Amino acid sequence: MNSREAIKICIDTSQMVSMGYLEDLTDEQLMHRPHPECNHINWQLGHLIVSEKQMIDGVAPGSMPPLPAGFEEKYTQQTAKSNDRSAFCSKAELMREFEKQRAATFAALAKMSDQDLDRKSPESMQSYAPTAGAAFDMQGSHWMMHAGQWAVIRRQLGKPPLY
User: Fold this and answer.
1) What pLDDT digit, counting tens, does each position of 125-142 carry?
2) I need a labelling partner for 82 at 20 to 30 A (CA). Which of 5, 8, 73, 98 fits?
3) Is 3-156 CATH 2.20.25.530?
Protein backbone atom coordinates (compact mmCIF):
# COMPACT_ATOMS: atom_id res chain seq x y z
CA MET A 1 0.00 0.00 0.00
CA ASN A 2 1.24 3.48 -0.80
CA SER A 3 0.35 6.81 0.79
CA ARG A 4 -2.31 7.64 -1.82
CA GLU A 5 -4.05 4.32 -1.21
CA ALA A 6 -3.99 4.87 2.57
CA ILE A 7 -5.47 8.35 2.20
CA LYS A 8 -8.14 7.01 -0.16
CA ILE A 9 -9.13 4.33 2.40
CA CYS A 10 -9.63 7.08 5.00
CA ILE A 11 -11.78 9.12 2.63
CA ASP A 12 -13.74 6.04 1.48
CA THR A 13 -14.49 5.00 5.06
CA SER A 14 -15.79 8.43 6.02
CA GLN A 15 -17.83 8.54 2.82
CA MET A 16 -19.45 5.18 3.64
CA VAL A 17 -20.41 6.39 7.14
CA SER A 18 -21.53 9.84 5.97
CA MET A 19 -23.64 8.59 3.10
CA GLY A 20 -25.21 5.96 5.37
CA TYR A 21 -26.29 8.67 7.79
CA LEU A 22 -27.69 10.82 4.97
CA GLU A 23 -29.33 8.17 2.82
CA ASP A 24 -32.79 8.16 4.40
CA LEU A 25 -32.99 11.81 5.46
CA THR A 26 -35.38 14.15 3.64
CA ASP A 27 -34.77 17.76 2.64
CA GLU A 28 -36.86 18.81 5.62
CA GLN A 29 -34.88 16.62 8.02
CA LEU A 30 -31.62 18.10 6.72
CA MET A 31 -32.78 21.39 8.26
CA HIS A 32 -33.05 19.93 11.79
CA ARG A 33 -30.76 21.46 14.41
CA PRO A 34 -29.80 19.33 17.43
CA HIS A 35 -29.54 22.58 19.40
CA PRO A 36 -30.38 26.18 18.43
CA GLU A 37 -26.66 27.05 18.31
CA CYS A 38 -25.74 24.07 16.09
CA ASN A 39 -25.74 24.08 12.29
CA HIS A 40 -28.27 22.00 10.38
CA ILE A 41 -27.06 19.20 8.12
CA ASN A 42 -27.93 21.06 4.92
CA TRP A 43 -25.57 23.89 5.84
CA GLN A 44 -22.91 21.42 6.98
CA LEU A 45 -23.06 19.57 3.64
CA GLY A 46 -22.63 22.78 1.66
CA HIS A 47 -19.78 23.80 3.96
CA LEU A 48 -18.06 20.42 3.46
CA ILE A 49 -18.40 20.64 -0.33
CA VAL A 50 -17.06 24.22 -0.44
CA SER A 51 -14.23 23.31 1.94
CA GLU A 52 -13.21 20.26 -0.10
CA LYS A 53 -13.05 22.29 -3.29
CA GLN A 54 -11.03 25.06 -1.63
CA MET A 55 -8.60 22.72 0.14
CA ILE A 56 -7.87 20.52 -2.86
CA ASP A 57 -7.61 23.49 -5.22
CA GLY A 58 -5.19 24.97 -2.68
CA VAL A 59 -2.77 22.05 -2.97
CA ALA A 60 -3.58 20.96 -6.55
CA PRO A 61 -4.54 24.21 -8.33
CA GLY A 62 -7.09 23.83 -11.11
CA SER A 63 -7.95 20.24 -10.22
CA MET A 64 -11.48 20.88 -8.95
CA PRO A 65 -14.54 21.73 -11.05
CA PRO A 66 -16.24 25.06 -10.42
CA LEU A 67 -19.15 25.13 -8.03
CA PRO A 68 -22.53 26.24 -9.43
CA ALA A 69 -23.14 29.98 -9.48
CA GLY A 70 -24.18 31.18 -6.03
CA PHE A 71 -23.32 27.91 -4.29
CA GLU A 72 -20.54 29.24 -2.07
CA GLU A 73 -22.65 32.24 -1.05
CA LYS A 74 -25.36 29.92 0.28
CA TYR A 75 -22.88 28.26 2.66
CA THR A 76 -21.02 30.97 4.55
CA GLN A 77 -20.73 31.70 8.25
CA GLN A 78 -23.36 34.39 7.73
CA THR A 79 -25.92 31.91 6.35
CA ALA A 80 -25.32 29.23 9.00
CA LYS A 81 -28.06 30.63 11.28
CA SER A 82 -30.74 30.66 8.58
CA ASN A 83 -33.64 28.22 8.84
CA ASP A 84 -35.07 29.19 5.45
CA ARG A 85 -34.91 25.96 3.45
CA SER A 86 -35.38 27.89 0.19
CA ALA A 87 -32.07 29.69 0.84
CA PHE A 88 -30.13 26.45 0.47
CA CYS A 89 -29.70 23.69 -2.10
CA SER A 90 -31.86 20.58 -2.09
CA LYS A 91 -30.41 17.27 -0.95
CA ALA A 92 -30.32 16.08 -4.58
CA GLU A 93 -28.36 19.18 -5.63
CA LEU A 94 -25.94 18.78 -2.72
CA MET A 95 -25.33 15.11 -3.52
CA ARG A 96 -24.72 15.85 -7.21
CA GLU A 97 -22.19 18.53 -6.33
CA PHE A 98 -20.57 16.31 -3.71
CA GLU A 99 -20.11 13.54 -6.29
CA LYS A 100 -18.46 15.94 -8.77
CA GLN A 101 -16.10 17.37 -6.18
CA ARG A 102 -15.23 13.97 -4.68
CA ALA A 103 -14.47 12.49 -8.11
CA ALA A 104 -12.12 15.42 -8.76
CA THR A 105 -10.51 14.94 -5.34
CA PHE A 106 -9.78 11.29 -6.13
CA ALA A 107 -8.47 12.18 -9.60
CA ALA A 108 -6.14 14.81 -8.13
CA LEU A 109 -4.97 12.41 -5.40
CA ALA A 110 -4.15 9.74 -8.00
CA LYS A 111 -1.82 12.18 -9.77
CA MET A 112 0.13 13.08 -6.63
CA SER A 113 3.57 11.65 -5.97
CA ASP A 114 4.91 11.14 -2.46
CA GLN A 115 6.97 14.29 -2.99
CA ASP A 116 3.83 16.19 -4.03
CA LEU A 117 2.03 15.04 -0.87
CA ASP A 118 4.95 16.30 1.24
CA ARG A 119 4.72 19.83 -0.23
CA LYS A 120 3.64 22.59 2.10
CA SER A 121 0.06 23.73 1.68
CA PRO A 122 -0.82 27.41 1.24
CA GLU A 123 -0.25 29.64 4.27
CA SER A 124 -4.01 29.93 4.90
CA MET A 125 -4.20 26.15 5.44
CA GLN A 126 -1.11 25.67 7.59
CA SER A 127 -2.96 25.48 10.92
CA TYR A 128 -5.10 22.47 9.94
CA ALA A 129 -3.43 20.92 6.87
CA PRO A 130 0.26 21.80 6.72
CA THR A 131 0.99 19.60 3.68
CA ALA A 132 -0.79 18.55 0.51
CA GLY A 133 -1.12 15.05 1.97
CA ALA A 134 -2.76 16.45 5.10
CA ALA A 135 -5.23 18.41 2.94
CA PHE A 136 -6.26 15.23 1.12
CA ASP A 137 -6.46 13.28 4.39
CA MET A 138 -8.59 16.08 5.87
CA GLN A 139 -11.38 15.15 3.43
CA GLY A 140 -11.98 11.98 5.40
CA SER A 141 -11.62 13.40 8.89
CA HIS A 142 -13.61 16.59 8.19
CA TRP A 143 -16.58 14.63 6.87
CA MET A 144 -16.34 12.14 9.73
CA MET A 145 -16.32 14.93 12.32
CA HIS A 146 -19.58 16.28 10.91
CA ALA A 147 -21.05 12.78 10.56
CA GLY A 148 -20.70 12.42 14.32
CA GLN A 149 -23.11 15.32 14.67
CA TRP A 150 -25.50 13.68 12.22
CA ALA A 151 -25.67 10.57 14.42
CA VAL A 152 -27.17 12.74 17.18
CA ILE A 153 -29.65 14.34 14.77
CA ARG A 154 -30.69 10.92 13.47
CA ARG A 155 -31.47 9.78 17.01
CA GLN A 156 -33.47 12.96 17.66
CA LEU A 157 -35.46 12.23 14.50
CA GLY A 158 -36.22 8.70 15.72
CA LYS A 159 -33.86 6.97 13.30
CA PRO A 160 -32.03 3.83 14.44
CA PRO A 161 -28.28 3.84 15.02
CA LEU A 162 -26.38 2.56 11.99
CA TYR A 163 -22.84 1.94 13.23
Assistant:
1) 999 999 999 999 999 999
2) 98
3) no
